[in-house]
Amino acid sequence: MNRARIRTVGELRSLRADLQAVPKPERLVSVSTASCGRASGALAVAEALAGEIRRRGLEKSVELRLTGCHGLCQLEPDLVIFPGKIFYPNLSPEKVPLLVEETLIHGRMVPELAFRESAGRKVLPTLNDLPFLKKQLRWLLDRHLTLDPDSLESYLEHGGFLALEKVLSGPSPEEVINLVLSSGLRGRGGAGFPTGLKWRLAREARSEEKYLICNGDEGDPGAYMDRGLLESNPFSIIEGMIIGGYAVGAARGFIYIRQEYPLAIERVKASLEKTRAVGLLGDNILGSGFSFDLELVRGAGAFVSGEETALIASIEGRRAFPRQRPPFPVVRGLWGRPTVINNVETWVNVPLIIQKGSGWFSGVGTAGSKGTKIFSLVGKVRSTGLVEVPFGLTLGEMIEEVGGGPEPGQKIKAVQTGGPSGGCLPASLFNLPLDYESLQAAGSIMGSGGMIVIDEATCLVDLVLYFLRFARDESCGQCAPCRLGTARLVRILEKITGGQGNPEDLDRLEKVSRTMQEASLCGLGRTAANPALSVLRYFRAELEKHVLDRECPAGVCRGLVSYRIDKDRCTACLLCLESCPAEAIAVAEDGYPRIDQNLCTRCGACLAACPPGISALKKLNRKEAESVEKSGEK
Amino acid sequence: MKSTNNLVEKLETILATLPEERRHLILFLHRVQQEIGYVPEEALSRAADYFSVSPAEVYGLVTFYSAFRLKPGCRHQVTVCQGTACHVRGAPELTAEFSRLLGVRPGQDDPERDVALRTVNCLGCCALAPVVVVDGEYQGQVQTDRVPEIVKKLIGNK
User: Fold this and answer.
1) Which runs of E-coded beta strand occur in A301-390?
2) Complete edge-to-edge strand list for the sheet that includes strand A385-390
3) What is the mean pLDDT of residues B78-87?
4) Average pLDDT in the A284-313 region?
């Protein structure tokens, strides 16, 4: 839609009022169509819905809206029907006609399609009934339920640019900074630096030109909070940055998004164009005399780009090499000028604080951490997805109540927070509150909000090896402690998971980790050994089991397990033989299959192939295997 | 040499849309990668001239960032996500199974069957772990028993 330029605060207000006054259809159907939703088939469901709505002549009474991420990634494709927030999870196009007939025409909920925690449990008909949402406080995520991320009008209708309007029609930049400072907002990227203070430092820096950056290089594997925000509410990031520009005295800003997020890039690009077209970006915004513009920069695939000085280098068109700090970017950043670099979620919080006040914001949270934080709760819990909770909720509440506890028959042993820079915290610490200081004191970090739950079926040594391989591959290679340290740690851990470890390896692990922590150039290098250090601290017994008893309790480390066929159960169906990629299984003289341990790669394909009722294939740890061999089964 | 001319023409068309400032160099490489499918040698030297940096600098960028490739890619591509959530839900086994059935190691191309196996650090669809992208289409919760069917659909019985 081509809109005329909005020249004054008055024009903005009347446009918003007009949009809000437009009569709405009786029902709104909101389909979650961010990347996760699309990957599970949400677009096909939406298409079926659109077709059925047309076929039944419901266009006037029902509006179908493709929104961003509802946060219930595991239940996708899902939809919410307003009013009433009737919720249907895990949809497919075949279910659409029934849903349209019953709910959209007759206003009745369909129990067969509604959510149940498990088969046979009672139906939970509305979104508000979901246990997953009970402990959440969704200041940011709830907007994703009704916002059309592609539409500036939809954003305005939801109160968009109210904060900008407030900022440009009264308070001085210093007053805006004070407001943000007193709200207690801290950087959501992980370091937790007070946002208002960063802005003040940049404001006070003497320079003709200053810049803002939005860090959307969300590289932590297992975390996708920022993708959710970028895809679901791009205009709020833009609004936050315009306000930041006014406060800091910057005329230009950059939104840097990692290239692995194509939908986020597309949405932000389109949103920037729409905002510019109505004059909310560009010269003389709303007639205030303040000018500000934003540019999208697409990353090119390097984890280290998420480090702020590396990201700056990347925008400048160079390799993403971090550099020594200080000077911090706020003193010398992009092209040597003072630069405020904040994470996506930080920017999204800004308009909210301006609009609702710093007291409202700081009324939630703990003494040092205010407001809410989005986490991506994934791994071995029943309910996974994007979760927004007030600071101060405990790890236990997060895992047991929000996540719904372990998967059937499993026991949770740890949670990994903060990605490759964080650590694994044991279940004994699940009473820790989620805030910046508590997690750091416990040897992990909050990081940007990745939270991976680990149960007894996951080997922590293998997980640490995974993170260190990641760090080794992604190390930029400038400084020796990180470049050589990560490679060294990987080698030691490979030795341990391969069944060749000895007690000195544990000391070496610790020593190399400490050196990296003290001597690496950038934050990523200094924290790269955190996964190893946290496991040494809390899960030493599991490590020692690998080294001293040559046993992997979770049965994951290939060097420490082997597979055997129990002849008493085997029916010689030979499915295992067919499944073996290494051709390590052959039929022996007695007609039963046998595994050649020298050829076996311990991939476990045979175990998966053996029919459940028969279960003749056994996974044994080293000790068990030795006793079997002694008893002469070989 | 019509193809070389074509290539030069393509490069010039891309360059014409970009200012000479160095910061647009990465964007140039993105566009080349997108249009041509890889970054040919001509693009390196032409970019060095245009943005006034040494060819070694351009080469450094292309090899530093994983988005760029120096050789033509394959028509089909399977990408297995290696994010943490995928890892704990079986991405290593999944990668191995694709590798076995496609007959290529992760990161390698099979020019004969025109298929490449790739890994990616994290696609951010962690709740759907393990995730595989087959010719641009995201598929969630892929277990190893589904691999044969995916491979068959992708490259037939070649």
Assistant:
1) 339-343, 372-379, 385-390
2) A385-390, A372-379, A450-455, A412-417, A423-426
3) 90
4) 96
Distance separating alpha carbons of residues A527 and B104, to the nearest angstrom: 34
Q: CB count, 10 Å around CB of A507?
A: 10
A260 touches chain B (CB under 8 A): yes
Domains defined for chain B, CATH in brackets: 2-64 (1.10.10), 76-155 (3.40.30.10)
Q: Residues 422..441 of A with a Cβ closer than 8 Å to B: which?
A: none
Contact list in B for residue A379 (CB cut-off 8 A) is: 84-85, 88-89
DSSP strand pairing (A27-32 vs A79-82) = antiparallel
Q: Residue A204 contacts by C-beta under 8 Å, 6 or more apart in sequence?
A: none
Q: Which of B18, B25, B26, B147 to mutate to test the interface with A (most CBs of A within 10 A)?
A: B26
pLDDT value of residue A581: 79
* The pLDDT of residue A1: 54
Taking contacts as CB-CB distances below 8 angstroms, the residues of chain A near B129 are 378
CATH fold of A23-130, please? Glutaredoxin (3.40.30)
**pLDDT tens readout for residues A535-549:** 999 999 999 999 999
Are B129 and A378 a contacting pair at CB < 8 A?
yes
Residues of A in contact with B51 (CB under 8 A): 317
Q: Do A260 and B124 touch (CB under 8 A)?
A: yes
What is the structure's pLDDT at B1?
46
Check CB contact of B123 with chain A, cutoff 8 Å. yes
What is the DSSP secondary-structure string of A383-436? S-EEEEEETT-BHHIIIIIIS-SBPTT--EEEEEESGGGSEEEEGGGTT-B-SH
The CATH architecture assigned to A460-548 reads: Up-down Bundle (1.20)
Class of domain A372-455: alpha beta
Tell me what percent of the residues of chain A surpass a pLDDT of 70.
99
Among the residue ranges A269-283, A287-301, B22-36, B89-103, the one predicted with the least confidence is B89-103
> Cα dist. A615→A221, A457, A576, A609, A612 in Å?
35, 19, 11, 9, 5
Cβ–Cβ contact B23 with A under 8 A: yes
Cis peptide before A83 (omega within 30 of 0): yes
pLDDT value at A205 more than 60 = yes
pLDDT digit string, tens, across residues A412-449: 999 999 989 999 999 999 999 999 999 999 988 888 89
Measured in angstroms, the CA of A132 and the nearest CA of chain B are apart by: 14
How many CA atoms, within 13 angstroms, populate the side-chain half-sphere of residue A33? 19
The overall average pLDDT reported for chain A is 94
Q: In DSSP terms, which residues pair with B133 in a beta bridge?
A: B79, B138
Q: What is the DSSP letter of A103?
A: I
pLDDT at residue A605, rounded to an integer? 82
CA–CA dist A123, A330 (Å, integer): 53
pTM of the predicted structure, to 2 decimals: 0.94
What is the Cα–Cα distance from A628 to A620, expressed in whole angstroms?
9
What secondary structure letter does DSSP report for A370?
B
Tell me the backbone φ, ψ of residue B69, rounded to 5 degrees: -130, 150
> What contacts A127, CB < 8 A, 6 or more positions away?
A80, A85, A86, A87, A133, A145
Residues 593..632 of A with a Cβ closer than 8 Å to B: which?
603-605, 608
Q: Is residue B100 within 8 angstroms of chain A, CB to CB?
A: yes
Of B22, B23, B140, the CB nearest to A40: B140
For residues A2-6, average pLDDT: 84
pLDDT tens-digit map of A477-522? 999 999 999 999 999 999 999 999 999 999 999 999 999 999 999 9
User: Are the CB atoms for A448 and A439 separated by under 8 Å?
Assistant: no
**Residue A219 near residue A258, CB atoms below 8 Å:** yes
ipTM score: 0.91
CATH number for the domain formed by residue range(s) A152-361: 3.40.50.11540
CATH architecture group of domain A561-630: 2-Layer Sandwich (3.30)
